Amino acid sequence: MAEAELATIARPYARAAFSYALEQDSGLDSWSRMLQLLSAALGEELVRVALDNPLLSGEDEASLLISLLGDEISTEGQNFVNVLAGYDRVALLPEIANMYELLKANHEKTMEVEVTSAFEISEGEIEVLSTALKNKLQRDINLETTIDESLLVALSLKLKIQ
User: Fold this and answer.
1) Average pLDDT over residues 70-89
2) How far apart are CA 10 and CA 4, in angstroms?
3) Phi-psi bin for 131: left (phi > 0), alpha (psi -120 to 50), beta?
4) Domain range 111-161, CATH architecture
5) What Cα–Cα distance (Å) separates residue 92 from each residue in 5, 69, 127?
6) In Å, how far from its chain's centre is CA 15?
7) Of 15, 51, 57, 145, which has the most beta carbons under 10 Å away?
8) Is the pLDDT of residue 143 over 70?
C-alpha cells in the first residue's frame, strides 16, 4: 500500500485515540506509551511473522498483541487494538503512533529537533539555538545533537570538486 494511502487510512484512528486521550488524566502520555509499545512490537520480525499467519483471525491478532503488552496496555487500549484487528488494520499501528505523536506535539506546542554537526556543540550554543528556535517557532524545543565527522569529508570533497 502506498504511504499516502496508509496515512489516509491511519489518520482517523490516530485522531480518535488522541481525542480520547485528551479527555483522560495523563491520557496523552499514557496513549503515547501504549501506541509506541504496540508499534515497537510490530517492528519485531517474530511478531510480524506471527501476525502474517493467514489462519489467525482478527480476534487472534488482537489477543496476541494484547498478551505481549500485558499490563502496559489499558482496557481502552485493548479495545482500540480489537477495533483495529476487526477491520484488519493492525499493520497501521506504526503510522497511527507517528500521527498521534504529531497531534500530541502540536497540542503541547513542542517540537523535536535534531542537529547534526561535524564538531561538538557547546551547551551555550545549544541554548542559543534552542532559544532562537523557540522564539521563531513559538514552541518548546527538545533539541538533540549528534556529531558526524563525515560531514567534513563531504564538505572537503565538494570544495575540491568546485
Assistant:
1) 94
2) 10
3) alpha
4) 2-Layer Sandwich (3.30)
5) 11, 17, 37
6) 14
7) 51
8) yes
